[in-house]
């Protein structure tokens, strides 16, 4: 009944919990409800049961909760399943009665409707007031006008269950593969705490009353739709339903699907018009079919349209309204459901084109889903979690505890200008976690995390100092602040590193945000550099060393040397010269004769969407070279990166820039590259390399080699370059 109940003042329940009541309590509630029946609003006698599903509510005693039509793909996180058995007690002999509410979407309820059903009077359909719903307007307009909004998200008060049903054709292995692809891409677009994705099987689609409890029907079947099922889909549209067709033969309203073999499974350029009439251009994988209007048809179309950027301007996406109750469909003949890593994508060139457009693919999908009435708002920021104090070397644990004992205040706190760390042996829910006050758990015998394996990290960390003491969090504001209160006080040989699975306030250069989804390797490492050392005199090289360490950490693994990771000046990790896969942020403080340097680093390891990750590159490499390289883990790579960085620093301190530049140039993306100075109209120059301080050197045609700096205002650090003022 979630999203159907409304309490006083428009409040909407966030969780429904079933409880067991004693006999006496149940009878008391029944008596109270019977006395109040006359106070409840009467139903509208003109309303039909078929189009008012919220009024068809029955209670069955001693039964299990119903199953929604089809196979459930994904449980809603944080909610009870509602299908636990009632236990050993029954109505006659147990101390408690078990009541389960069934809704009109339950096939079992419909089958039992004509059998003996004992209804509880105060929960019967006759006494449930109508919820407002206007079938002459779209879902979006209803919720915008009368629907309360919670935390920026529209609340569904249409009476429909929050179900997205996926029809992929007759049951087969091929259909199952399509199901997984469609489910995956939709789960990345909509908040799965607000919607549930179900597989709509063909027999269930014909038999079960799903029409009244479906917010969106997704049709992704490549086979023709049987006539009886086609009529079901059209009936759903006629009562105001929303349909998204993905490379399907399903169509209506005067459109027909026509084969165009020359386009089949090829990468094409699509021009997509959004609802506000702005355009998005992207590379897409064509199905080989196009939409054409029937002869003499004058069609009324919605604003969402998509055509290929070719001579025929083949129509690939159309928004088609249907009926008088707000029904509509978006029909699509490009594979928005397929990732660039799909086996359908054959060549590296096509993979590159599709990956470069992957973010815009999601932009188009979200525009379509939003137009069809769904919310594609980002999930709320996850709750902050406590830190764990971990050690990668047993021999430094006791000295660490002794040091902490001397430096925490009487309440176990170490404060800095950024935040306070409260060291505790264990965590209880009474301890508050805020961005400025975070508990640190020191008793870590029971530590475990799905996303960080301490033993894998230990085995792959081969350093003398760096990365030995770990502050780990599942969710934290930003790792750059976690070491602030420890970096100047803790002995340098303890090697601090902060590692997080997710950040809620990640930072990039300047005012840029740093996205930190699950699947990226996120860390901040403390490095101490003597001022009067080779690197201490050339601190800008630190960011280059860290970028190089990430690339070398992957490409130095046996058999992974050809995974096309590269460095881009000054602080980026790239896939080839096409797409950013990670970045580095360096903050340095000089105290006395020592630089204390915090190196923040984040790079995508397993998070394929919405851009690209290292495991994408491995998958594509396997496909092209018929090999089976294993995917990599974030904890494994963080340990290798720290190990590689310590080696690069030692080499730089011993040999200076010339000790690392050959390796840096081997992996950088700028060989022979040309850029413009000052602005897009400035003189064109060729990139030569790095100067002795780590800044970029360029050569003007017929001129000399000069050092240039970024202007500090561009997201792309190479977009605008300026020549430093001559001394």
Automatic annotation (TrEMBL):
One Gene Ontology cellular component annotation held by this UniProt entry: nuclear matrix
GO biological process, one term: response to biotin
Coiled coil: none
MF GO annotations: biotin binding; biotin--[biotin carboxyl-carrier protein] ligase activity; enzyme binding
Sequence ranges assigned to domain BPL/LPL catalytic in this UniProt record: 455-653
Pfam families recorded: BPL_C, BPL_LplA_LipB
KW Ligase (keyword) present: yes
Superkingdom of the source species: Eukaryota
InterPro entries in the cross-refs: aa-tRNA-synth_II/BPL/LPL, Biotin_CoA_COase_ligase, BPL_C, BPL_LPL_catalytic
Disordered as annotated region, ranges: 30-98
Biased composition (Basic and acidic residues): 49-75
Keywords from the named record: Ligase
NCBIfam families membership: birA_ligase
PANTHER family cross-referenced by the UniProt entry: BIOTIN PROTEIN LIGASE (PTHR12835), BIOTIN--PROTEIN LIGASE (PTHR12835:SF5)
Family: Belongs to the biotin--protein ligase family.
Protein name as catalogued: Biotin--protein ligase
Phylogenetic lineage: Eukaryota, Metazoa, Chordata, Craniata, Vertebrata
